[in-house]
Amino acid sequence: MSDEIVLQRTAAAPKASTFPTEIIDLPSKGHFYPAGSPLSSGRIELKLMTAKEEDILISPNLLKKGLAIDKLLESLIIDKNIKIGDLLLGDKNALIFAVRRLAYGDAYGPVEIQCPKCTAKSKETIDLSQLKEKEFDETQYEPGTNVFEFVLPTSKATVQFKLLTDSDEKIIEKDNAALSKLNRVSSSEITTRLKRQIVSVNGETDPVKVKGFVDNMPSRDSLALRQHIRSITPDIDANFNFTCADCGQEEKVGVPMTVQFFWPDAGV
């Protein structure tokens, strides 16, 4: 079922932290992590952000390397056995939104939004507490296993795939950056992601053969697989209800991740 992201207050463990903490429920409910993983509980305890963590957010070195958010989460997570790289992407997204709400409240803005219909721009303040988790029924899947099967509609090939973790995402970003230097005309985003996500094709697990299959996958199969993966991926639905003041268009719009998200006094 679809639930609001839960921020549950709990007393801090005396030996773990001298600060108040919060328990965050993960969208995955811990369902796809191995039984021995600290993430399999489906909950993460965070200490509340302090000036120390704000220093992390403005560190020029960490910002330049794109590590500020990861270092922030590492500092806030109570259980140091939890590794950021092991988090499913949807769970990490939920943590980022939770940290922001706990640190600076639910009001985010004003931020500039462009109407998808008339392209007029307006300033909006978004209530982050209204964001919900995507609908997700974990009972349909085997617990502790991050492997799924899908029959492609055109080729009829049976592929097995996994949900991506933060570590996977970083490898994809690195691979895409390297490929973009070799070919500045076209993008490899779709194929690079699928090559990382698909673990077997018709039982064949050889990475070279899987990559060759992806390169020659019919576009209808690629689209169907990507849509299926999105439909079963536990995540926060980072869209809010937007009404254009100019043309009256009403629709869901993605929350823009501007500098104000973690720096509310940065202005727009």
Short description:
This protein is 32% helix and 21% strand.
Describe the structure.
This protein is α+β, with helices and mostly antiparallel strands and 268 residues long. The protein folds into 2 domains: 7-135 and 235-266, no CATH class; 138-232. It is built from 8 helices and 12 strands. A 3-stranded antiparallel beta sheet has the order 1-2-3. The protein has a 3-stranded antiparallel beta sheet with strand order 7-8-9. Strand 11 (239-243) and strand 12 (250-254) form a beta hairpin. It starts with 6 loop residues before the first strand and ends in a 14-residue tail after the last strand. Mean pLDDT is 89; it is low at 9-16.
Keywords:
8 helices; 3-stranded antiparallel sheet; single chain; 268 residues; alpha+beta
